[in-house]
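Repro:
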Amino acid sequence: MKATLRPTSIRPDQGARRLPASGNTALAASALIQTALGVEFVLSGLNKFADPHYVQNFDQFVSSNPGTQSGILSGLVKGLVLPNVAFFATLLQFTETALGIVLLLGAIEVGRRRFSGRFGREHGYEAPVALVSGLAGLAVAGLSLSIAVLMGEQLPTIMPGRAFTTAIPVELLIVPLGIAVAWMEAGRFLVLWRHRPVAIPASVRAQVIPVNEGHRAS
């Protein structure tokens, strides 16, 4: 029986794509939020490194806040943080700086994929970067919420004393922003992981499959 040769079919998503499957305008806007949070935490961490009396100031800050005397974190602060104040002060320095760097790198990666050509092409490391950035967003939200509780911040309401300041305390404002970044990066991770590029050897691309005449795929 006569046989006909046809090239092996290749899925469209196996080729190079100019824009990622997760790409849209909303991602670019979310990257701006992520950049702002990254800059905030990098500078906050570096400010702590620049303060020659940082450990003493950290001790005074923690000791003087309402959440240290009463509240859900008071027992933890009194029993663990204050007895080891130097350790937790140093931990906060590095944590804030590291979280800021991770958020900035994630935002840069989102922005890079908005470009065409070789600069914006897809890479295999994108899914892990999105996952780590999402975890950093959750960590930022959790850290900011803890500081807000320690400071005794209340839920936003009408307060005459805030007529010329932010209606929502910055620590509380960062919480939903961090969650939003985590949500966005989690979505990117899922899409990028499912559509991650697959290397196709030249031998496979050139392979031909014999198909019986009269039974060709349409």
